[in-house]
Amino acid sequence: MLYLMDIWDAVRGFMAAGGDVLWLVALVLFLMWVMMLERYWYMTWVVPKAHKAIVATWMAREERHTWHAQRIREAWVSRAKQDMNARMLIIKTLVAICPMIGLLGTVTGMISVFDVMATQGTSNARLMAAGISLATMPTLAGMVAALSGVFFSTRLDSKMKIRLERLKDKLPQH
C-alpha cells in the first residue's frame, strides 16, 4: 500500500509540475489507449469468429462463380474491412492531437514565464523555472503519448490488413 502511495505522489507531482494542460494530455492518452485496447480485443476475439462465419456461408453457397456471387463476396469483404477499421480514424486523430496539446502546454508555460518576467523581472530564476517546467512537461508528455500511439496503431493497422488478406484468401473466387 505504501508503494502505491509513493507512485501516486510521484504522478501527482509530475502533473503539478506540468500544469493543467498535462491533465488534458492524460485524458487524450487514456481515450486513445482505451480505443486501441478495444480494437486489439476485437481483432483477437471477435474477428476470427466473424471471418469463420463468412467463410462458412461462402462455402455453403452452391454458386460462387457468377458475377452476382462475386459482388456478394466483395460486399462481405468490404463489410469485414469496415468493421475492423471502425475506430481507427479516431485513434489516429487522437495520436495526431497529442503533440498539439503538448505544444499548447508549451505556449501556456511560456506565457507564465513572460508573466513572471513582467512582474518580478529577470532576476528571480526560481519563479521562471516553474514556468519553464510548465512549458516543457506537457511537450514531453504529448510527444511520448504520440510515439506510443503511432507505434501501436501502426501495428494494429498492419494486423487488420493481414486479417483482411487472409479472409480474401479463404474465399475462393473460382
UniProtKB/TrEMBL annotation:
Residue span(s) of domain MotA/TolQ/ExbB proton channel: 61-167
InterPro entries linked: ExbB/TolQ_transport, MotA_ExbB_proton_chnl
Keyword tags: Cell membrane, Membrane, Protein transport, Transmembrane, Transmembrane helix, Transport
Transmembrane segments: 21-42, 89-114, 126-153
Coiled coil spans: none
Subcellular location: Cell membrane; Membrane
Pfam families, alphabetized: MotA_ExbB (PF01618)
Source species of the chain: Shewanella mangrovi
One term under GO cellular component: plasma membrane
Protein's name in the database: Biopolymer transporter ExbB
GO biological process entries: protein import
Taxonomic lineage from the root: Bacteria, Pseudomonadati, Pseudomonadota, Gammaproteobacteria, Alteromonadales
Topological relation to the membrane, as annotated: Multi-pass membrane protein
Record's keyword annotation contains Lipid metabolism: no
Family per similarity comment: Belongs to the exbB/tolQ family.
